[in-house]
Amino acid sequence: MRLPRSLRAAFHRWIARRMGRQGRVIRLDYPRIYILPTRAGAAFAGMLVAMWLGSVNYSSSLGYLLTFLLAGVAFAAMHHIFRNLAGLTVTSTGTEPVFAGGVARFRVRVGDPAGRARWAIGLGCERADKVTDIPPDGSGWLTLEVPAPSRGWLGPGRFALLTRFPTGLFQAWSWLDPDWTGLVYPRPEGGAVPGPEAFAATERGGQFGEGDEDFRGLRRYQAGDPPRHLAWRLLARGQELHTKQFAGQAPSKVWLDWQALAGMENEARIARLTRWVLDAERAGHSYGLRLLEAEIHPGQGPEHRHRCLQALALMNQ
User: Fold this and answer.
1) Lowest mean pLDDT among 59-63, 67-71, 247-251, 279-283
2) Phi-psi region of 238 (alpha: psi -120 to 50; beta: other; left: phi over 0)
3) Which residues pair with 99 in a beta bridge?
């Protein structure tokens, strides 16, 4: 049965006051770990009570023996379940940037500094991997999925690390509120979007170099090469990926300017500029970004694209 919303909110406020804000690396000490019976554990306890009452009613020594033997097994299981979680360290390798409206996936690393094996460690939320085992002197990995509704920095929020190993009669868990962050890019404007005026009035160098006119040859693929210049036919034949080179004028330089979108709301401007960054990168332009408080000189490639999208994601934050 789910608790009422007001009671759940009060419970989470109490947890926040008790646990406090945690750092990037979290160690699960004894005071941070809770343990309660599961539904199977509650049913098992009810069965033990019924067996004990039957043994009292019929004065059965064997009944007493079996009842207390099973109770001892349950108490030993509770001890092992607690120790399966105690002493673990939890950290994250971060998350790849996502666009607003998507899902950020935090890679969670769980390990034991003492080098002991741990079993069936999981995350206590709906959007998570099932469980992971931690080998001796090794680590286990889990994926925490967090919705990313808006641009900017995103944290995973509060979640629980839990285990029910070995019997499933009890569940031990610890609340975590780590200081992890991931970047959320703005959502690009959809539909048919007019290109910036700079696309029509591009700046070209007069020197003879790489351009889009006469085919000159092939070279090995380098990160950041525009997809339209890739030799896909060679790749389909099983050969190494190459990039086509052309002789002609130098590549065009495009400026994506905040002031060019005067009259639009700020979030609409950001969405339009995000779309222009993606389109310019896809078209192979050398593009720059002019914002109110920042200017990124023309360039291209994954790192340049990330710088532009990050600047848009963090505007006014």
Assistant:
1) 247-251
2) left
3) 185
Residue 68: C-alpha distances to residues 64, 72, 79, 243 (Å): 6, 6, 17, 75
Please write the tens of the pLDDT for every residue from 96-121. 999 999 999 999 999 999 889 999 99
Encoded tokens for 157? 């929020």
List, as own/partner pairs, every contact residues 235-243 make where C-beta atoms lie below 8 angstroms and the sequence separation is at least 24, other chains included: 242/218, 243/218, 243/219
pLDDT tens profile 236-252:
777 777 776 665 545 56
Q: Where are the alpha helices (DSSP H) in the chain?
A: 5-19, 39-58, 61-85, 197-200, 232-236, 266-283, 302-313
Each residue's pLDDT tens digit, 217-234: 666 666 666 777 777 776
For the record, the structure tokens of 66 come out as 């079996």
Axis-axis angle for helices 266-283, 302-313 (nearest 10): 180
Tokens at 101, concatenated: 């409206």
Give the span between the Cα atoms of 107 and 75, in whole angstroms.
34
Sequence-separated (6 or more) residues with CB below 8 Å from residue 264: 272
Give the residue from 190, 175, 196, 168 showing the smallest Cα distance to 100. 190
Cα separation, 281 vs 41, in Å, equals: 57
Q: How many residues does the chain have?
A: 317
Q: Residue 37 in 3-state DSSP?
A: strand
**Rounded Cα gap, residues 64 and 77, in angstroms:** 20
For residue 203, give the DSSP letter. B
Please tell me whether residue 90 adopts helix, strand or coil conformation: strand
CA geometry: angle at 15 spanning 115 and 160, to 5°?
40
Report the mean per-residue pLDDT for the chain: 83
Structure tokens at 119: 């079993």
Q: What share of the chain is helix, strand, coil (3-state, %, to 5)?
A: 35, 30, 35
d(CA 197, CA 210) in angstroms, rounded, equals 23
